[in-house]
Design a protein that fits this description.
The chain has about 120 residues and is mainly beta. It has no helices and eight strands.
Length: about 120
């Protein structure tokens, strides 16, 4: 596992993120896969890199702040009903515990760095 250390750079685009088929309860489409690599804790927050292949999946979110570093996607908010958002490299998104979402990745893959309590 790669881990955060003061003064040490991690290339989040170069990290190997092992994918698995998204479980059926997430209603994946088109053979969607996803994976994550934890980077450890920072100031009491879990940090890591998450990636999803082109495709569609539903999710129940945790509290999280994420920064998209590669790819393009649409996130639809099913509960609560909010306007869909378009994500691309540089997008910052806050998610809240219990949100019901549908992720549609339009590019070959979507990669984000996340911080979660």
């Amino acid at each position: 596992m790669t881990s955060l250390k003061p003064g040490v750079v991690i290339d989040a685009l170069a990290l190997d993120v092992a994918h698995e088929t998204v479980p059926a309860e997430h209603d994946p489409q088109d053979g969607t896969t996803a994976g994550a690599t934890e980077l450890g804790d920072f100031a009491g927050l879990e940090t890591g890199v998450w990636e999803m292949s082109r495709g569609v999946m539903h999710d129940t979110e945790a509290d999280e702040l994420c920064v998209i570093i590669a790819g393009e996607a649409t996130v639809e908010f099913l509960e609560p009903q909010l306007s869909a958002v378009q994500l691309r490299a540089g997008s910052v998104l806050q998610l809240s515990e219990g949100m019901q979402t549908r992720w549609t990745v339009h590019s070959e893959q979507l990669r984000k760095v996340y911080l979660a309590p």
